[in-house]
Structure formats: C-alpha cells, structure tokens
Amino acid sequence: DVKVTQSSRYLVKRTGEKVFLECVQDMDHENMFWYRQDPGLGLRLIYFSYDVKMKEKGDIPEGYSVSREKKERFSLILESASTNQTSMYLCASSFVPIGTEAFFGQGTRLTVV
Amino acid sequence: AQKITQTQPGMFVQEKEAVTLDCTYDTSDPSYGLFWYKQPSSGEMIFLIYQGSYDQQNATEGRYSLNFQKARKSANLVISASQLGDSAMYFCAMRDPNAGNMLTFGGGTRLMVKP
Fold first, then answer.
1. How far is B57 from chain A (nearest CA, A)?
2. Which residues 23-62 of chain B have a CB within 8 Å of chain A?
C-alpha cells in the first residue's frame, strides 16, 4: 500500500523556535512537495524537490527551508517560527512523468504561539 | 508562472443530481497535466481524475468526468448522481514541465450535497 507519512499530526511551537516537519515516502518517488493549506487559499507550494539534494522554490518559500539527503525523506524547516506560519502542512510525492498523480501524507497542523 | 483558478468557493447540490465544478488554468506550455483531488473533512487528499493536454478524449472515472476545453483553458469536473459522501473540498491542480513538473493547486471549491 502506497504511503506518505508525516512525523506529526499536531504540533504546537513557540515563536522563534526552529521547527522540523518530516515526511517519508516508501514508493521510490523522485518528486516530493511541501504545501501549506489555509482556508480560502487552497494549497500553496512552499518547496519542491525532484531528486536527492535538489530543490526548487515554490510560490511561498520565505521563512522556510528544506532538506533532502535521502530519496525517501523530505524535511521542511521553519528557521524561526512565527505566528503567521500557523497552518496545515501537507507533504506529497510523485513519480516524474507528468501524468502521474501525487500521493499525500495525512498533514501536520502546526500552531505557533 | 502557471495559475489555477476555481471561481466557486462553495456549492450546493441536491442528492442524485449532477454538479459541475469549474477550473480554469493558465500556462504557455502545450504539454501539461490536469488533476482533480477530493479532500473530505478527515483531511486526506484523494486523487480523482487526470487529463493530459494531448488526450483526445475527456477523462472519465466512474461518476467523475472531466469537461476539458483546451481552447478555453478550462478543465471542469462533473460529478454525476451526487451522493452525500461527495460533500468535501475539491481541488483542481496542474503539472507543467516548464515549471519543473511542480504540482500547483487552485483555491478549492467546497461542495455540499443536500439530502
């Protein structure tokens, strides 16, 4: 069974903390994505990785960084969390061909207080 | 930059009726892929249907079909015979090789099915 696993379902962090959101996939997908989802704004792409150690900025990369040291793992890092980063974060992965769908993790609801 | 627009933030449909969810997109590349996902209240993202830009036929998957009008850059999702379990958020998305195959989403439409 296809699986994308995010390390936490719910997370509460303090302003200024460094936050790591982890995502692991077991499908040998080349592509991995991090999105944030806010009401009325849909899913906005933060970062995208198409290979190990490769990354591309999405639409809203400010305040975030990513790490992909292994093919199966893609980490999202909030260097200094702020309250406006309170959101639902979704990780996804896919094969390279354009016609292949992405598979999503269950999401991490992050609250920054 | 590619862009996906869903103009209907929310819609009601009577159970057993058909409903169309709108999606328009903008890309300068002739090769791209269009996807629809469903997100029920539980939060998981469920892939529904895919349409490639070069596909001659409109995609269909069970009760889901995609009304693809390439010249108008629209890819509307049609759900036939709505069921109560269809109540969810629906997202249109696009992959564009000129954008590194990133998957970009629209703002979503909340569909509510009335009994």
1. 15
2. 31-33, 35, 43-45, 47, 50, 52
Cβ separation B103–A40 shorter than 8 A: no
User: What span, in angstroms and rounded, lies between the C-alpha atoms of A98 and A102?
Assistant: 10
Q: What are phi and psi of B86, to 5 degrees?
A: -80, -10
Say whether residue B8 is in contact with chain A using an 8 A CB cutoff: no
Type of residue at B51? Q
| Cα A26 to Cα A100, B19, B104, distances in angstroms | 16, 36, 23
Torsion of CA A50, A110, A112, A32, to 10 degrees: 0
Each of the 115 residues of chain B gets a pLDDT tens digit; together they read 558 999 999 999 999 999 999 999 998 888 999 999 999 999 999 999 999 999 989 999 999 999 999 999 999 999 999 999 999 999 999 998 777 778 899 999 999 999 9
Query: What do you get for the CA distance between the two ends of chain A, in Å?
Result: 37
If you write DSSP's letter for every residue of B35-53 in order, what string do you get? Answer: EEEEE-TT---EEEEEEET
> How far apart are alpha carbons B83 and B14 in whole angstroms?
9
For residue B71, how many other CB atoms are within 10 A of its CB? 5
CB pairs below 8 Å between A and B: how many?
60
Q: How many CB atoms neighbour CB A55 within 10 A?
A: 18
